[in-house]
Amino acid sequence: MLIDIFNPQISVVAKGLEGKVLLVYGSNNLGKTKQATRMKKPFHLGFESGLNAIAGVPFLPINGWADFKKINKQLTNPKTLDKVKEMYNTIIFDEVYASSLYCQYYICNKYDAETMGDKVEGKNLYQEYEREYLREMDKLIKAGFTLVFIGHAEYDKDTEKFRPKGDKRSMGVIIDNSDIVVYLKSNGVDDKNNVIKSSAYLAETKDFFARSRFDYIDTYIEEYTAENLEEVIVKAIEKQEKAEGIKAVSFVQQQATQATEKLDFDEIYNECIGHCKTLAAKVNLEAVTEIIETHLGKGKKITECAKSQVDILSLILDDLKDAVQELGDNE
Question: Does residue 4 surpass a pLDDT of 90?
Fold first, then answer.
């Protein structure tokens, strides 16, 4: 899709769980991981031992951030993404706080630092950690899986309520991108000492944080199971269809509205060269240089662009086209 504000896409709501991002958190032994593994075609990313009592779930061991980066690269590779989705629909990220520690260890090792507070080569390691974590999460979130982040609960003295455990550089990214944040609460045991399934809350209270992007969703699930969670999401979208007169679409259709133009480096490069010659001939070389240096920096040339800079090159092309068009309008 070409970027054109005069021809915008219209937002749509997708049915079902596909492509939804969920954060499920609470104390231990509430069924966070177990219920996530009951979702469609799960794959478990275990930063901690969440599968010790659960059999039959595909996973790969993660003993460091580098392990996760390798797995994430395979999960999100555009060339093989369709093949991956034939195997897995639900990615279980277990759990967020442990993953953030792995990422911090990785950054310390990368810069040969003892702690995150060290200054190495003038770099702020916390900023490096934030960029690294965001970069990997962005790839995973945008891949279009049903993504279930697992988190622990901790009491926040400032807000005087329970929140997902983690710093703003990691947990903040997860919360901001979650369609639903689920807080699980224990119901203890029955009179025969059998564990009663936990309950789920999907809206914030005075005691804990939770939320949903869906206005018509039930905010309480008495018995938390994967099936019951999916049911409240499906019903919420059905209620929205009826109340707002909309028609929910498939996730594939929703993704199509969010796709942007695919940039071909060689094609854009050749167009840039052609427009540079036209503009230089009709005006002067300085006009071309000004446009290029605005985007690449003083003294830089288009011929020095790497393929990873294709997005910058596309901006240069837009400005060159505008300049050539303006010349034509003035003739």
Answer: no
List pLDDT tens digits, range 205-221: 999 999 999 999 999 99
Which residue, 257, 288, 319, sits at the end of a domain? 257
One domain for residues 158 and 75: yes
Q: Omega before 95 cis (within 30°)?
A: yes
Dihedrals phi, psi of 240, to nearest 5 degrees: -65, -40
Residue labelled with tokens 């279930």: 148
Q: Which residue has the tokens 């939320």?
A: 211
Q: What is the pLDDT of residues 33-70, one digit of tens each?
A: 999 999 999 999 999 887 888 999 999 889 999 999 99
CB contact at 8 A, 129 and 2: no
Torsion over CA: 134, 135, 137, 143 (sign): positive
Query: Domain total for the chain?
Result: 2
Choose the final residue of a domain: 257, 292, 309: 257
Report how far residue 268's alpha carbon sits from residue 291's, in angstroms, rounded to the nearest whole number.
Answer: 15
For 211, residues 6+ apart whose C-beta sits below 8 A from its C-beta are: 178, 180, 181, 202, 203, 204
Q: Residue 191's domain spans which residues?
A: 21-257
179 and 291 housed in the same domain: no
- Give me Rg for the CA atoms of the chain: 25
- Both 244 and 271 in one domain: the answer is no
Q: For residue 11, is it within any domain? A: no
Note whether 64 and 71 are within 8 A (CB): no
178 contacts 170 by C-beta, under 8 angstroms: no
Q: What is the DSSP letter of 329?
A: H
CA distances from 234 to 17, 166, 272 (A): 8, 30, 48
- Considering the domain architecture, whether residues 169 and 210 belong to the same structural domain is answered as yes
Yes or no: say if 223 and 233 are a contact pair by the CB < 8 Å rule: no
For the segment 58-104, what is each residue's pLDDT rounded down to a tens digit? Answer: 998 899 999 999 999 999 999 999 999 999 999 999 999 999 999 99
